[in-house]
Every structure is written in structure tokens, then in C-alpha cells.
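User: Structure please.
Assistant: Input sequence and predicted structure:
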Amino acid sequence: MNQKQTREGGSRSWAEQLQQIIKRRRMSVFMIIGAFLILLILYNVGNFIFLNQMANQMETELGNRLNSIAKLSASIVENEFPESFSPTMKNRLSLSVIKGELQNIRKQHQLEGLFIIDRNFNTVLDSYQNFELDITRTYLKNDAPWIERTWQGIPSTGPLHTFQGQKFKSAYAPVHNISGEVIGVLVAEANAYFFVLLDRYFNTYFLLAVVSAGIFILFTTFLIYALRLLIQTQKKLGDTERLAMMGHMSAVLAHEIRNPLGIIRGTADILRSRYQDQNKPDPMFAYIPDEVNRLNKLVNNFLILSRDTKLNVEKHNISALIEETIGKMRTDENRDQVQIQTQVDSIPPFYFDADTIQQVIMNLVRNSQQALESHGSISIKARMAEKRRKKFVQISVTDNGAGIEGNLQTVFEPFYTTKSSGSGLGMAVAKKIVESHGGWIEISSRWGKGTTVTFYIQIVHSIEE
């Protein structure tokens, strides 16, 4: 619709100043959200690292404790100089003493188990009095690498295991005979019950992480919503200030211009009736009334922008109105160069102000005609649409002109124009009229491809609505 945007003078428009304010507000909100997110991440990561370090430290301490107990118990066993752990008459007393010592150590250190195994993982000596021997402890095969290392004479500590919901840890110490040969592996087992409590802490941590993420989402949503309300309020405040100024100016213009225009128009009509040859009409006599009408239209546009629009609402057929309006604008001088095509659905009559909506359509089509410079095509489409759970009539005007560059919303500013002539009020007036009908107006454009302006007016079936 418009050529490449230009701006006379070095001063920034009100819309540009508002955009700068909105940009600063948006940056502030995003910085707050970012800072809150970073703090949230640091808090959760810090908790996670702390709990992991605590778990590692506790496991290390438990391993060291079990390792010391296992080596101490193995040295006690070796002091009895057993040749083997088979219950014979010769070593029965020695094995009984060893079992008693192991039982005392197990109870003193609150261990789950303290026993000796052979290479086949069979129990050859246990601190429990009634425990059956030669029972294969198959679960120890999970620690086979550490047990094999112990058979080579090196004390080892296995990793943490979970069995039936309980966490266990085992330490292994070699048991030597008098000759220094390893004849068994002493196993010290402990129930890491405090890890259950630590798991609860982990579960609580993950729950808090989920809750904090939910709080962050709610906080972000609230800030964005508040930012949108602030932006809308700033825009409305700016519009109110601008319209108040224009209202005062329009009142002065209406008083100071309309009276002289009436006199000029009346004088022109008198001169035409007196001096124009009826057989040879002179187009010069039409110039004055045309210019008077143009100035009257300019004053009316000022009044529409500066005051609350009072609509003359009656039931009309929007489809017929569009066809009628386009028919008026298909002038002889550009009929062959600019093709105007319509695609209007059948829309039931509803209540709206026909004169103002016709003015909107004429403003949009006229802008497209000026952008095309008498070469190209214009398409007008109208159909029913449901938006925001309400029914609207959607009317779009599309041209294949040069398009618009830059911020498209500036076309709705009063007095904004890229043409050498014109008041720059057409799009602003169209926006005001559409909004007074409970609708809104949108614009999209691609440079070198064309522009589409779409506006929506609410379908009202009764005046009370």
C-alpha cells in the first residue's frame, strides 16, 4: 500500500519513543526472569551436588570403617593359627573361640554379617551361632572382582548394593594360615540404613525441583502478563494524551474552518449559476467545491480521531455494501490499469454503521490504488470468522504493490504518510472506526511483493448487544 517509509526531520515519532520504552520494560522483565532462573538453577544444582557429595562421603566413611573392622577381625582369626576351617577334633575349640570373637565384634559394631567364605563363596565360619555352614552366598558373586583381589592378599571394599529395598556394603580381608597362605576371605557386611534417609532427601530434592520449576513458570507467566498490561496501558495513555491534544485542535479547526468553507462553497455556487454557460460547462467551476469537500473531509477525520465515535448503527448487508463501495471506486481513468477483484461470501445482515465501514473500505482501497500507481491488481475478500469465541466479519484488502519496509504499526499513526500529498489520517481513522465496532485491524507486507490489510468487525444481531 505504501512505498518505502521515510521520515522527515530528526525527531522521533511518539510510536518510536513508545517502542523504546516498551523495549526497556521488556528487557527489564527478561533480566528479572533470567536472574530468577539462574538463582533457581544454582540452588537446585547446589543441592544436588551437596547431596551427592554427602552420599559419596558417607559411602567412603562406611567403606573405611568396614575395611578396618574386616582387617581387625582377620587378624583375630589368624592369632588362633587355624590350618583350615573344617570342624575337626583338633581345631574345634579354636573355631569356637574365633566364632565367639566374631560374634562380639558384630554386635559391638552393629554389623549385618561377619563371616568367612572359601573360593566357592561357601560360608566356612559365621558369627551367628545357629547359621548353617557350607551355604553358598551367591549374592557375593556381584563383588567377585574385589573378592578375587582379596584372595591375592589385598583387603578390598565392594561397592554399595541394594537388596530387597535395603542398601548394603561389604569389606573383604584375607585370612592367612601359619604358612602365610590365604585360606579364606573374611566378609564384614553393614546395612547402610542412613542411605535410605538420604534417598528420601533426594526424593524431596526432586520434588522441590519440580515445585520450583512450577513456581518459575507461574512467576514468568505473571511477569509477562503484567508486562503486556503495562504495554497496553502505556499505549492507551499515549493515545489518550494524543487524542486530547487533537480534540482541542479539532474543535478550533471545526470552528475556524467550516464557517469560511460554507461561505466559499456558497459563493462558488452563486458564481457558477451566474457565469457558467450551460451549453459549455467549465470544469474550473468544480474545482472550488471539490477542494471545499476535501477540506471538510479532513476536518471530519480530525473529529473522528479526537472524539468518541458515535455510530449510527442499523441493520445492513455487509456483502452488498462492499460491492456498492467497490463499484463506486472502479473509475474510468484506472479501470484498465488497476484490476479490482472481489470475493465476498454471503453474510447475513447485522447491525453496524454503514457509512463509517464504507469509509474504512474506501480508505484501504484508495491506499492500494495509490501504491500501485495505476498498474497492478487489488483483491477484496470478505467472510465470516470466529475469533475469541465471538463471530466477526473478516474483510481483507490485498494489493501487489511495492510493499512496506520497517515497522508496519507506524502506518496507523495519525499524520504518518509517505506520499507527497495526503493528511496521513486514513489508516488512523480506519483503525478508530474498526475498534469502535468491537474489532481490530491488522497489516502484513513483504517488500516488493505487496501488502494486505485485514480488519474484523463484530457481528451484532441486536442493538442491545
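The helical segments are 14-79, 92-108, 144-151, 193-275, 284-306, 318-329, 354-372, 426-436.
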